[in-house]
Task: inverse folding
């Protein structure tokens, strides 16, 4: 799988799920496309508006992105903002799994938040474990994601995967 996109933002260390989507909206609205208009509003009020201008966006972040509560809406809201991939130095584990469950690709890449800039065009080759910064003509390596996680992404997330397979087999 290859994803090409533009870096929309670079978020700092410990960006949490409450900053991605505030809890006050969690119960008022169930439609993620409407919730998306509040994405990152406490730390980046222009994020949603900017996300509507370009398709195939990439978020880059420092370490522990998605920490905090296990808010399911956080990855759904990000995906609804035209984000096709998140690259960070590390992710909170529950957020990591929630993203794969909805088919939103994540990559962990050391020091990435110090190597790319907002507006850079990136190309991510999942099978090879390579991020190409087209803007700067540079390459960065990352550990390829496990095959099962790639299968989830290729299916569009956990539920489409399960529907196609008829459930989990004992080997998985």
Result:
């Amino acid at each position: 799988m290859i994803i090409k996109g533009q870096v929309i933002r670079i978020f700092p260390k410990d960006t949490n799920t409450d900053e991605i989507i505030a809890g006050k909206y969690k119960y008022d609205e169930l439609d993620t496309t409407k919730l998306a208009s509040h994405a990152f509003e406490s730390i980046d009020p222009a994020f949603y508006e900017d996300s509507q201008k370009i398709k195939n966006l990439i978020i880059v972040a420092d370490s522990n992105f998605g920490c905090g509560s296990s808010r399911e809406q956080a990855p759904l809201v990000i995906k609804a903002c035209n984000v096709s991939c998140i690259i960070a130095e590390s992710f909170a584990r529950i957020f990591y799994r929630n993203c794969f469950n909805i088919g939103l690709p994540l990559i962990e890449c050391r020091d990435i938040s110090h190597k790319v800039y907002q507006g850079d065009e990136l190309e991510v080759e999942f099978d090879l474990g390579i991020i190409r910064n087209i803007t700067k003509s540079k390459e960065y390596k990352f550990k390829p994601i496990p095959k099962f996680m790639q299968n989830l992404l290729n299916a569009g997330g956990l539920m489409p995967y399960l529907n196609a397979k008829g459930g989990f087999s004992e080997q998985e």
User: Anything to note?
Assistant: The mean pLDDT is 92. The chain has one domain: 2-165.
